[in-house]
Design brief:
By secondary structure, the chain is of the alpha/beta class. The chain contains 7 helices and 13 strands. Strands 10-9-8-11-13-12 form a 6-stranded mixed β-sheet, with helices on one face. A 5-stranded mixed β-barrel has the order 1-2-3-5-4. Strands 6-7 form a two-stranded antiparallel sheet. Strand 2 and strand 3 form a beta hairpin. The structure holds guanosine-5'-triphosphate (GTP), magnesium ion and zinc ion (ZN).
Length: 308
């Protein structure tokens, strides 16, 4: 039987079969770990083969079909090991809010770099339009323009005012979508308003810290009407940029990628090298200074890691 892993607790997996059955499965005893050094051999989103012959109580996952892609991050505790967050993602919806809570462009750019590295097209959704002051709206406009100019689709939503919620619904139909963004930006609220039966847990924002409490505790894929699958990730602080080398990063900034051929050195890191087309474009105002600054911060972090 073929199916898709919707949920994993580490020892049990919930698999939706192609016939629409939900099965609780275990892993085959001597399940062959892939070459990847990961803490989890099977992840949410995996297409798997399930067998029910050997055991009457439990269905067993015997095989993971090749992954189209996967998102991975460093396990916080064992830093050498990595954890596959989800696989077979067709698109990402990055939900951001300029206030309550504030999403930094540093966070956005790290997410986008990771998504580019995995070739996952990303839509950026600016939520909580109803809750923003004039000043915050202006700030949002400036931020959104940067991303629109380099080709990312941008949307403005408000759940209480039902602004553009239908547009987001259209985006989700028939696709497997990774929903990401800081805790409290409204990921669960948006999905709940589109698919009320799903009842993802939401929580009131704590008045003291003005930040959403962390209410989603594990990664789970929701099989929704109209063939939509959604992975509502916890408010991941930062995606790990595992496996990325400093020299690759500019290839994941679309506005830099198109200029790389014009740098004097083909291993240019666009830091202090002469004849750098990227730096020139920053100076001309063709590349956002803030994006460039975030680029440098990502590269400097990676160079720091490469020393060890
Ligand atoms: N004013 C306003 N509040 C919203 C909007 N969307 C969500 N909220 C509120 O923001 C708070 C957090 O929303 P959640 O949906 O729980 O946030 P989340 O992104 O799922 O957070 P985690 O599950 O912790 O990652 C809740 O109190 C929502 O009611 C919106 O468009 N406008
Ligand atoms: Mg949530
Ligand atoms: Zn350069």
């Amino acid at each position: 039987m073929k199916g898709k892993v919707l949920k994993s607790t580490g020892s049990w997996y919930t698999v939706e079969t192609d016939d629409g059955l939900l099965l609780d499965c275990r892993l085959k005893g001597k399940f062959r770990l892939s070459d990847l050094d990961t803490t989890n051999p099977v992840s949410v989103g995996d297409d798997v083969i399930v067998s029910d012959e050997e055991d009457v109580d439990a269905n067993v996952i015997t095989e993971v079909l090749p992954r189209q892609n996967y998102i991975i991050r460093q396990s916080p505790k064992q830093s050498a090991q990595r954890h596959i967050i989800a696989s077979n993602i067709e698109q990402a919806l990055l939900i951001v809010t300029v206030a309550k809570p504030r999403t930094s462009t540093g966070f956005i750019d790290r997410f986008l770099v990771t998504a580019e590295a995995y070739a996952i097209p990303t839509h950026i959704v600016f939520n909580k339009q109803d809750a923003l002051t004039e000043k915050e709206l202006k700030k949002q406009q400036a931020i959104a323009k940067v991303y629109e100019d380099i080709g990312y689709p941008v949307y403005y939503t408000s759940v209480p005012q039902e602004e553009n919620v239908k547009t987001i619904h259209e985006l989700l139909k028939g696709k497997t979508t990774l929903l990401s963004g800081h805790s409290g930006v409204g990921k669960s609220t948006i999905v709940n308003s589109i698919y009320p039966d799903l009842n993802l847990r939401t929580k009131e924002i704590s008045k003291k810290v003005k930040k959403g409490m962390h209410t989603t505790t594990f990664v789970e894929m929701h099989a929704l009407p109209d063939d939509a699958y959604i992975i509502d990730t916890p408010g991941i602080k930062e995606f790990g940029l595992t496996d990325m080398e400093a020299a690759e990063v500019s290839g994941y900034f679309p506005e830099m990628r198109e200029r790389l051929d014009n740098c004097q050195f083909n291993d240019c890191l666009h830091m202090n090298e002469p004849g750098c087309a990227v730096k020139e474009a920053v100076q001309n105002g063709e590349i956002s200074e803030e994006r460039y600054h975030n680029y440098l911060s990502i590269v400097e972090n990676l160079l720091e890691d490469e020393k060890y």
